[in-house]
Amino acid sequence: MKHPRLRDSKKLVTNEIYPINEMPDDIVMRIGGYLVYLLYIGRKDITGSDWGDAFADAIGGKHLDSPVGIADVVFDKMAWSMKTVKNQRPFEAHNVRLISGRCSPDYSYGISDPHADIQKTGRAVLGIWNERINIAQDNYNPVRTTVLIRSNDMLNYCLFEEENHRFRTSDYEWEVNTNGNLIGKDVNSGETCFTWQPHGSQFTIHTRVPEDAIKFTVKQPPLLTKEDILKTIEFDSSWVNILKNV
């Protein structure tokens, strides 16, 4: 669906390359091809950086590959935060936990003891996340999270997207679990929405997998052998220089 024409000429209008969570088949095919390529060269797993490379290659975007910030892949004024998680049965996954960066209330707000007031600490954690969303949206619109759930053998995948957004801190209450981590729960439903680990300051968002998530499989290609590689690059003895008396 096209964006409506508005009289407000200052409004940032972005031509989305596809509606959210409605990724075209040709993009999914290019993603699948990149994953087959990784299998072909002998990769045993996929990193977040690999997923960013695969998606950027599929849409013709740029992978910023930055360890901080929300925007991982960008195309024109659009941005995506790339997340990949492993699950034994991706097609049956209903919830995933997305590691969403480090949030340090000590560095950002001067909260040296996170357990002294866990509600204050929880609000601080969400405040850090919200500020990162503000920074991303100052430069890009829309900003999405694109999640790839991968099987252990890298042959089965589940793919979905959601809009990145701020969280209203008053919608959540916080408690401490048996591991000493802070758990953020929805005040109305009691559903666990966040986990924050004081050790390492890792912030995790608990996300539901939508029923219309894209599911696809790839075929295991034959492995590229050492002999294949050397033949392809036309290796011979001139490639090796043995240094003597050095």
Provide a descriptive summary of the structure in words:
By secondary structure, this protein is α+β, with helices and mostly antiparallel strands. The protein contains five helices and eleven strands; from the N terminus they run ααββββααβββββββα. It has helices at residues 25-40, 48-59, 105-109, 118-139, 226-232; strands at residues 62-63, 73-75, 78-86, 95-102, 143-150, 156-163, 172-176, 182-186, 192-197, 202-208, 214-217. It is globular. The mean pLDDT is 92.
Any chance you could write out the topology, listing elements then pairs?
Blueprint: H1 25-40, H2 48-59, E1 62-63, E2 73-75, E3 78-86, E4 95-102, H3 105-109, H4 118-139, E5 143-150, E6 156-163, E7 172-176, E8 182-186, E9 192-197, E10 202-208, E11 214-217, H5 226-232
Parallel strand pairs: 3-5
Antiparallel strand pairs: 1-2, 2-3, 4-10, 5-6, 6-11, 7-8, 8-9, 9-10
Q: Report Rg.
A: 22 Å
Biggest sheet overview: 6 strands, mixed
Classification by helices and strands? alpha+beta
Question: Whole-number average pLDDT?
Answer: 92
Our measurement of the CA-to-CA distance between the termini, rounded to an integer number of angstroms, reads 69 Å
Could you give the order of the helices and strands?
A: HHEEEEHHEEEEEEEH
Q: What is the share of helical residues?
A: 25-40%
Number of strands: 11
Q: Poorly predicted ranges (pLDDT <50, ≥5 residues)?
A: none
The global form is: globular
Strand order of the largest sheet: 1-2-3-5-6-11
Number of H- or I-type helical stretches = 5
Share in β-strands: 25-35%
